[in-house]
Amino acid sequence: MGVQVPKEALDFFKKLEKNNNRDWFNERKKAFKAVEAEVKQVYNTIFDTLNTHDEVDKVKMFRIYRDVRFSKNKDPYKTHFGGSFHRTKPKLRGGYYLHIQPNNESFIATGFWEPAPADLLRIRKEFEMDDSEIREILANKKFNSVWGDTFVGDEVKTAPKGFSKDHKAIDLIKKKQYIFTKKYTDKEVLDANFISEVNESFKTIRPYFDYMSDVLTTDLNGVSLI
């Protein structure tokens, strides 16, 4: 049998949701570590598969421990696995993320979660100058059959400072994040073809990544910055 998400991973988190405390977790830490090791294989396999068609230089699987210092939610543990895949900078921009959580809350995400201020301004300036290329990518049938035809994420209420709220591309300019997500059911996550499906979905994001990488490595005149 090939590498796949074990049912025990979802089962463990379902129980943890009801028993999110250190005593319960510590009694079952060995079982968790065994599940975590299997899931790590899933992330590593996706990393290897991504590198057959992209340049990804690292995979980071996040720890289960929550930082509760500044949170109203004081539960000590996350009830999901999360991990990111980092494209090789500076020439390649954007990133991939896989989130595994029971009760049909799993998803993949791609794009720009927290663009650096300079990158965010550069993206907005590009859309202000010419939004035709990004509109074409968003309208592509193969692309939006996977990712939809619009960005998700936070945005400002009207217009960022220095931009007109009446600009024809204000729907794009006012975004603070430029990301796409795709959700999965528990049944889909546990399917033997899940890794392949995730990879194929990630593959369809490339026109967007190629475009944004070009934008973020050039100035408004198209002169290379790297």
UniProtKB/TrEMBL annotation:
<dbReference type="InterPro" id="IPR012808">
    <property type="entry name" value="CHP02453"/>
</dbReference>
<dbReference type="InterPro" id="IPR015996">
    <property type="entry name" value="UCP028451"/>
</dbReference>
<protein>
    <submittedName>
        <fullName>DUF2461 domain-containing protein</fullName>
    </submittedName>
</protein>
<dbReference type="Pfam" id="PF09365">
    <property type="entry name" value="DUF2461"/>
</dbReference>
